[in-house]
Amino acid sequence: MRTTIVLPTYNEAENIRRLLPELLNLPDDVSVCVVDDNSPDGTGQIAEEWSAHEPRLSVVHRTGKLGLGTAYIAGFRHALAHNAEAVLTMDADFSHHPRYIPAMLEKATQADLVIGSRYVPGGHVAYPFHRRALSRTANLVARLALGLHAQDCTAGFRLYHDYTLRSIPLDRIFSNGYSFLVEMLTLIEQRGYRVVEVPIIFNDRQYGKSKISSREIIKAMYTVGRLAARRAIGRL
Ligand SMILES: Nc1nc2c(ncn2[C@@H]2O[C@H](COP(=O)(O)OP(=O)(O)OP(=O)(O)O)[C@@H](O)[C@H]2O)c(=O)[nH]1
Ligand SMILES: [Mg+2]
Q: Whole-structure pTM over 0.85, yes or no?
């Protein structure tokens, strides 16, 4: 299956140097699309230099920090325009380790969406307590308010089939940032697609800084509220 790995990046210079070779050496038929928001630390340039001698790597440069959700959409559009049969999204900071990718690709034969999941048996989160509590609460609220079935609704480690992505009206997605993931999953589950979770051990980043902020958390609560209201009136 021709798979494009979409990597949104903002200030991931230390990580991207280490991650790109691991991804490009995977035994599977993968290409990589870095979506960089003009990172001040030069992540976009590093990826650009690599792409000059690696035809399987492409870089989408955006003018500034435009948010994670629209970065995913830019990556989806790029991958679909280049005939990808599947699109895998992951963080560039090694929280999502490339070693899980083969298992996710294998599961894709049984699912329309595969989630690299922290919250199924065998999964684990190596986060400090407060971050773990935040993630657990966000998941619980999303599951209860939106009736989602997946255990890890906020995971960014996902493998989408091309047909799954093509059936979602990407133009109409209203949330950006981290809540984008909850909105995408809601639209996918609502269409009756099969979602399968593969356990992963999620590690805290080693290099670089987190981009999650209290503003993002408030925006995520707004997204869940808005989606729950739409679901209640049957207009998702
Ligand atoms: N292009 C782009 N990438 C982003 C943006 N915000 C975050 N990212 C990337 O999205 C991925 C996830 O962001 P992180 O900062 O790791 O967020 P997080 O995983 O919630 O936080 P930590 O656990 O602290 O790392 C990383 O690869 C980031 O570089 C953005 O606005 N634009
Ligand atoms: Mg991270």
A: yes
